[in-house]
């Protein structure tokens, strides 16, 4: 006996089902940020306790390796927490949005990112970093392989997965694109945990968020993020008096660079706007 065909029955008088928000909304980001801080503090306490009894072999390279491990663990725990909340809220398996992108987009976003760096550096100068903070950053980034891996590989991949692949992806389903991108950029700036990186992080986050919205993929953001961090890392290898584009080029050439960078960045955005369309999952 054949199985009966399933019945397709409509219920016109049934009450409408009210859809819940997709994780996250802006309120749930407070708790996510708290979890990020909690994981960071616990990890930092473990490192402080560990290095207290390991001063004999605590070389800068070993410390950089431990900082890399701590950063990866902290970000993975935060990402794991966000994914679990997302799966629970949506009752589905999370998709990381590693969607393929067209080949022409890669050079466009790299050139646009390089142009954006000029503006980000100008913005960062609005809040001068105190000398004692600069020394802390120099001690943290010791110009070895593990510091470079943290800046140009681990941070772009993990932060883009969290801030664009999870947070912005959910926000875009709850709010308008402008609101979602703005909220995700604020979160991206805040997790840098200092005002000197938070401001530039917010500005870069607006561009990164827009790119994710246009491509529905975290891959372009990873490329842009890595390009920015690679350039910033290269400047750290210059003498202190030559760090910064203004100090390196001087006034006439710096103004010319700012004008060219603005035109290039706007041109890149126009190309991306015309050749990409936002898609839905």
From TrEMBL:
GO terms for molecular function: peptidase activity. The keyword Hydrolase applies. Residues 144-230 form the CAAX prenyl protease 2/Lysostaphin resistance protein A-like domain. InterPro entries: CAAX_protease, Rce1/LyrA-like_dom. GO terms for biological process: proteolysis. Pfam families: Rce1-like. PANTHER family: CAAX AMINO TERMINAL PROTEASE FAMILY PROTEIN, SLR1288 PROTEIN. This is Membrane protease YdiL (CAAX protease family). It comes from Mucilaginibacter pocheonensis. The lineage of its organism: Bacteria, Pseudomonadati, Bacteroidota, Sphingobacteriia, Sphingobacteriales.
């Amino acid at each position: 006996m054949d199985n009966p065909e399933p019945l397709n029955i409509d219920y016109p008088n049934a009450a409408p089902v009210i859809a819940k928000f997709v994780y996250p909304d802006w309120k749930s980001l407070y708790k996510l940020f708290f979890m990020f801080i909690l994981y960071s503090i616990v990890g930092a306490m473990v490192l402080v306790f560990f290095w207290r009894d390991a001063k004999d072999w605590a070389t800068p390279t070993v410390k950089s390796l431990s900082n890399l491990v701590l950063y990866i663990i902290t970000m993975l725990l935060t990402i794991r927490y966000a994914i679990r909340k997302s799966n629970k809220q949506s009752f589905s398996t999370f998709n990381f949005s590693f969607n393929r992108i067209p080949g022409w987009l890669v050079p466009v976003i790299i050139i646009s990112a390089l142009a954006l760096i000029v503006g980000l550096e100008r913005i960062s100068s609005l809040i001068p970093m105190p000398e004692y903070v600069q020394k802390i950053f120099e001690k943290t980034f010791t110009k070895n392989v593990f510091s470079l891996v943290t800046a140009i590989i681990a941070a772009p991949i993990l932060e883009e997965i969290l801030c664009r692949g999870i947070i912005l992806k959910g926000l875009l389903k709850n709010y308008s694109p402008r609101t979602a991108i703005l909220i995700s950029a604020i979160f991206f700036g805040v997790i840098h945990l200092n005002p000197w990186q938070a401001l530039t992080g917010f500005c870069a986050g607006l561009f990164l968020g827009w790119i994710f919205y246009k491509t529905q993929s975290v891959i372009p953001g990873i490329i842009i993020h890595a390009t920015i961090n690679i350039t910033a890392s290269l400047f750290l290898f210059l003498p202190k008096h030559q760090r910064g584009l203004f100090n390196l080029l001087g006034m006439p050439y710096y103004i010319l660079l700012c004008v060219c960078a603005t035109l290039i960045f706007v041109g890149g955005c126009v190309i991306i706007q015309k050749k990409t369309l936002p898609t839905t999952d």
